[in-house]
UniProtKB/TrEMBL annotation:
Name listed for the protein in its UniProt record: Beta-xylanase
PANTHER family recorded: ENDO-1,4-BETA-XYLANASE A, GLYCOSYL HYDROLASE
Family: Belongs to the glycosyl hydrolase 10 (cellulase F) family.
Signal peptide feature range: none
Enzyme class: hydrolase
Catalytic activity: Endohydrolysis of (1->4)-beta-D-xylosidic linkages in xylans
Active-site residues, as the UniProt record annotates them: 241 (nucleophile)
InterPro entries assigned to the protein according to its UniProt record, in alphabetical order: GH, GH10, GH10_AS, GH10_dom
Keyword Hydrolase set for record: yes
Species the sequence originates in: Olivibacter ginsenosidimutans
Domain GH10: 1-336
Highest taxon listed in the record's lineage: Bacteria
EC number(s) from the headed UniProt entry: 3.2.1.8
Keyword annotations of the record: Carbohydrate metabolism, Glycosidase, Hydrolase, Polysaccharide degradation
């Protein structure tokens, strides 16, 4: 196309894409990424299991390649993610074959966060410090699934991660990142938790709404209200993993399971393309109108390579702004 996302949004905020290493190694895809986007996130390669697969063994290889690709092409880097309670490497929870105790677990959080943030200091302009820690249901403020950091270390692990990250790179913006903002109950839980955390002094700068949304959309009023809410407690807001699935993601409040979609057609009809473009342009318009409160939008893939959604729902998907042949879609034109 003759115009680009990054130029169109130059006076608003960075437009990012989550990338895989094989995408930046492919010259056509790399070209799409560098001409269209102004920010990059590693879709996987800076997660704890990738960066520290064994205790004390840090593997920055692939993360470094992604970061130097970004730097070389004048793109910002959104770091994702330092602490992901449900997806920490297994070793985090054990010490000499036994369940790890609280002190050692907190020490491991500290070492991981400190080492990674210092390594990328000055290169990552922000970090998802904690990812998906707040549950949809249940009596506890943080997730209490078995194996979680919360069971062993309580809320301290959350605070610790932010304090250590702040100290390791005082210039990086620190985010809490999560899904499910479209569901009021979960959004409000996140809001209450972050409000309290800020009140007790935890250095949180922003909230990331993942934005794995669907053709059933999200209402404009609700999106505005959500941004306003978080901004009222001094947090900047970013949409960090945006995709608009061609299927609905909720049915009467419940998140769709693959089985719920079994009989749904996977035809990417003109009607669905139009609907998807309307949702995309509404979201981008609201974010433009609330610039300052909103400081970034990242798509969870540069183009319709929907492995993550396909795996989860078992159905072909077309959730992004460029198609499988890297060509701009109606959604792209409308957003620009
Ligand atoms: C996903 C990646 O896209 C997949 O490649 C991987 O297999 C699993 O993780 N929430 C997040 C992201 O915060 O890190 C997830 O990314 C998608 C959901």
């Amino acid at each position: 196309p003759q115009y680009s996302l990054k130029d169109a949004y130059r006076n608003y905020f960075p437009i990012g894409a989550a990338v895989l290493p094989n995408q930046i190694n492919n010259s056509k895809i790399a070209n799409l990424i560098t001409t269209q986007f102004s920010s990059i996130t590693a879709a996987n390669d800076m997660k704890p299991t990738y960066l520290q697969p064994k205790e004390g063994v840090f593997n920055f290889n692939v993360g470094d390649k992604i970061v130097s690709f970004a730097t070389k092409n004048n793109m910002k880097v959104r770091g994702h993610t330092l602490v992901w309670p449900r997806k920490m490497p297994k070793w985090f929870y054990y010490s000499q074959g036994k369940a790890v105790g609280k002190d050692l677990l907190l020490k491991r959080i500290e070492t991981h966060v400190n080492t990674v943030v210092q390594h990328y200091k000055g290169k990552t302009y922000c970090w998802d410090v904690v990812n998906e820690a707040i549950p949809f249901f249940g009596p506890n403020p943080l997730d209490s699934n078995k194996d979680s950091l919360y069971i062993i270390a309580g809320e301290e692990y959350f605070d610790k991660a932010f304090y250590v990250a702040r100290k390791a790179d005082p210039n990086a913006k620190l985010f809490y990142n999560d899904n499910g903002f479209e569901w009021k109950k979960k959004r409000d839980r996140i809001f209450e938790y972050l409000k309290k955390a800020k009140a007790r002094g935890v250095p949180i700068d922003g909230v990331g709404m993942q934005g794995h949304w669907g053709i059933d959309g999200i209402s404009e009023a609700y999106l505005r209200e959500t941004i306003k809410m978080f901004s009222s407690i001094g947090l900047e807001v970013q949409i960090t993993e945006l995709d608009i699935s061609i299927y609905p993601i909720r049915s009467s409040g419940k998140v769709m399971k693959a089985a719920d979609l079994k009989s749904t057609s996977d035809a990417y009809t003109e009607q669905i393309q139009t609907k998807q473009a309307q949702i995309y342009s509404m979201i981008f318009r609201v974010c433009r109108e609330m610039k300052g409160q909103v400081t970034g939008i990242t798509l969870w893939s540069p183009y319709d390579w929907a492995n993550y959604l396909t795996k989860r729902m078992g159905k072909k998907n077309y959730p992004y702004l460029f198609d499988e042949n890297l060509q701009p879609k109606k959604s792209f034109h409308d957003v620009v």
